[in-house]
Design a protein that fits this description.
Largest interface: A-B, 30 and 31 residues
Oligomer: heterodimer
Strand order of the largest sheet of chain B: 1-2
Largest sheet of chain B: 2 strands, antiparallel
Order of helices and strands of chain A: HHEEHEEEEHEEH
Shape of chain A: elongated
Strand order of the largest sheet of chain A: 2-1-3-4-5-6
Order of helices and strands of chain B: HHHHHHHHHEEH
Distance between the termini of chain A: 81 Å
Number of helices of chain B: 10
Distance between the termini of chain B: 35 Å
Strand content of chain A: 15-25%
Number of domains of chain B: 1
Strand content of chain B: under 5%
Number of strands of chain A: 8
Helix content of chain B: 55-70%
Amino acid sequence: MKVNKDNTGYIFLFTFLLIGVVAVILSILATSLAPQISKNNETKKQMDLLQSIGIESTRANAKELFQKYIGSNPSYVINNRGEVVEGNAFEIDIRTQHRDKSISEDAKKYPLFIANKDGQTLYIVPVVGKGLWGPIWGYVSLKDDKRTIYGVSYDHLGETPGLGAEIKQKFFTDRYLAETVADENLNYMPIKIVKDGSGAQPQKVDGITGGTITSKGVEEMVNRTMEIYLNYLKTI
Amino acid sequence: MSEVAEKVKAPAEPLFSKKNRKLVSDPLSDNNPITIQVLGICSALAITVQVEQAVVMSAAVFFVLALGNVVISLLRNLIPGRIRIIVQLVVVASLVIIVNQVLMAFLPDVSAKLSVFVGLIITNCIIMGRFEAFAMGNKPWPSFMDAVGNATGYAIILIIVAVVRELLGSGSLYGIPILGSPIPVEGYPNGTGLFDMGYMNNNLMVLPPMALIVVGIIIWIQRSRNKNLIESH
């Protein structure tokens, strides 16, 4: 039988069949892979958290190391006034929350993780902000004086390779080490990203050449988040 | 009509006949998708800053183009002519999503590198171009060979451009510092290697316009070596 391919009925039939087949394939795939994907994301989060306290991990040993250093300690969820609220810190997706304009500032939840490394208590603060092309995020860990940066890990979705994307490189994250986010009384002090090479001075970090907007995004996200968390850190 | 014609010459030609081999070798130089057909320029300038990205992108395009060409070729006698472009788009978009999902589940680190390019692959005109120009009118096997040739031709140019840009723009290749590192370390305030002697990265190389210029230079070299490629009009 010869079908007329330009027949409107045939076109509709073909379209519906094609869409049906594609929809079935994609939804079966998405459903069957979802548990594996969420497990991978969880592992990635554990690896990022570990990296912020200076522990390199692989996908294979992330879970074990996470349990050893972070998972065995309590974690908290706070609001922007520094009060502890209900919630599971590990499950809060701060990137979605940051993007969602319908959530008021007061309703936002901020997770705080506590790590224990070499007998020292470390406070891990997740940060999220805006780069040049898309979101940037990371974790900043503070020493037990609650104001000196112990380590950071940053990541990004699509910053320019070789320029803004360099924020995740060690040479840049190392520049944040030993900077302070507050004075002795835990009053907030900003850390500035500078262009003039004066990054060695306190409260200053050298930016990335050619990555000014991403560097500024890092500055903004760290400072904004630290100001909020200090409300809580002061009280403990 | 065309079906009848095909059936006549059905006693098949060998898989790697001269004609089929030509499908692979032509796009490598004399009919290169980037330098001759001037397709896929958008992705060529977006992701040739580092060699690693160019390699990941090339692999992804290879996979999607090969699978897509075969799928379109299998469906070619069923696809209504009036909506063929939409059908091609559906096929390429689904393939890209499938690839990305599978990578997310089994090779999450590769997927993280690739996720940015998903949109770029779907809109890559080489893929649509080969679907429309070749797979719609040819059998699956030649279509597959055509995809292999075009994807490889695309990869070659992408990687050449990326090598030039990464070497001159960041002093490294595949993330390995070749010319030294511009990051100051103890005792080397200007960085190590060549940078210690006053060499500086060419930041222009990192920006998209230099990709066009590098592609332009490749086209120039290619056409001056092979005068047949120069259009006369």
